[in-house]
Amino acid sequence: MLYLGSDHNGYAAKVNIKAFLTKNNIAWKDLGNAKFDKNDDYTDWAKKVAQKISFNPANQGLLFCGSGQGMAMMANRFKNVRAIVGYSTMTVKHGRLDEDSNVLCLPVWDFNQSQMEKIIMLWVKTPFSGLARHCRRIKKLA
Q: How far is the C-alpha of 91 from the C-alpha of 7, rounded, in Å?
């Protein structure tokens, strides 16, 4: 399952991405914000997604906010969560291959819809390499 969360800055992008995910047969569940609220806090939505991933690291999460940074900081406070800020295709690719990231934080101030779709699909379709050195490093994160 792909869990979604956004603050007010990422709300519109999240709404648009849901149709894209559905079109590409990617199962998702939106954990909020359910409506645009310019006074919401990114920490609340990152926490909801991170809790789901922490409970079952086989799940994945997408978090949308202005810079992606605050969402990543909050999500990474939870056990088993390996959140990255997807600021380039290379970052996203290696975040999956090398670190087995399970949460992608998207900086919506930096991307249009098409760019986000490309980054999300790359992240979703890139498998973890499983190489011994990467497994060893992930264990050290715990």
A: 23
* CATH assignment, 2-141: 3.40.1400.10
**How do residues 58-81 score in pLDDT, each as one tens digit?**
999 999 999 999 999 999 999 999
Whether residue 97 has pLDDT greater than 90: yes
Q: How far is CA 126 from CA 12, 36, 102, 131, 136, in A?
A: 26, 31, 11, 14, 20
Q: Quote the radius of gyration of the chain (alpha carbons, Å).
A: 14
3-state class (DSSP) for residue 61: strand
Q: What is the Cα–Cα distance from 128 to 7, expressed in whole angstroms?
A: 28
Question: What are the boundaries of each domain within the chain?
Answer: 2-141
In this prediction, residue 137 has a pLDDT band, given cuts at 50, 70 and 90, of very high
Detail the DSSP E strand segments found in the chain: 2-6, 28-30, 60-65, 83-85, 103-107
Mean pLDDT to the nearest integer, 11-38: 96
Q: Is the pTM of this model over 0.90?
A: yes
Q: Which of 27, 93, 30 is nearest to 58 (CA)?
A: 27
Backbone region of residue 17 per phi and psi (left: phi > 0; alpha: psi in -120 to 50; beta: other values): alpha
